[in-house]
Amino acid sequence: MKDYLVLISCICFLIFLIPGRFRKYFAIGGWASIVGYLFLELPYYFSINNFMYPTIALLSLPFLYITAKYLLRDDPRVIQLSTIAAVAFLVYAPFGYIPALGDWLIAAVTDQTSAVLAAIGYPVNFTAWNMMERNGFRTEIILACTGIQSIAIMLGVAWGVRSTLRQKIAGFLLVFPTIYILNVLRNVFVITAYTEQWFPYLPGIASNGEFGYESFFWAHNVMAELGALIFLVILAYALFTVLPELGSLADGLYRLYRGEVEQIIRPKAGKADL
User: Fold this and answer.
1) How far is CA 133 from CA 63, 64, 76, 111, 127, in A?
2) 35, 74, 153, 196: least CB-packed within 10 angstroms?
3) Under a CB-based contact definition with an 8 Å cutoff, are residues 222 and 47 in contact?
4) Strand, coil or helix: 50
5) pLDDT one-digit tens code per residue, 38-93
């Protein structure tokens, strides 16, 4: 079911890119499918003690309501946001839905991660083409470990806003190599922290019943996630300098969603004061 929702979202956003009377409805279908996918993934996120994505899933409900409301009004800001999502899917889809391409990317990232680990004195053994082992701890590299999602999102931002071809190329050169290299370094950090057991703390919170999992939890689910979030904010700021239109769009979207959230909250706050 989850894979179907991703596929439906992809198809909806691609159709949305085709000019027509009903394109806004396909955009709504794309966003709704993403939200549905996030909620279906909740059991998995909880099983690995990851609470960032459940929080995103919760916040996605008011986001979906506001986005659908303004898509129906043909608001140019939300149309532009949906265009960014559509471009991101165009980048991600070949790797997500063509196994040969996805496996090629996983293998490349696995080999590069292994090479960096060996270079810094933490060599690993391969137990499978995408699985590395050290000190009895195994780590599997999957598509989510390649950084393709972040690359797709940021390229969507760079290519989905109104800009010249030169600006789009500059955005690509800023986004792709930066995220790709930093993602390999993220993998190196997580694997080293896990296999060397750097953070065996608070098993009541961080353990899933697997020996040594605490170090993976703190390295992958907390430090790497927060680090990636901070980096993406910094990268987005750098894109503002390359794509001035992006700053105007971001400001417009911020005002739109903030205003809608305030309208939702204020009546409740008024009732609480009575």
Assistant:
1) 41, 42, 50, 13, 7
2) 74
3) no
4) coil
5) 888 888 777 766 777 788 889 899 999 999 999 999 999 999 999 998 998 888 88
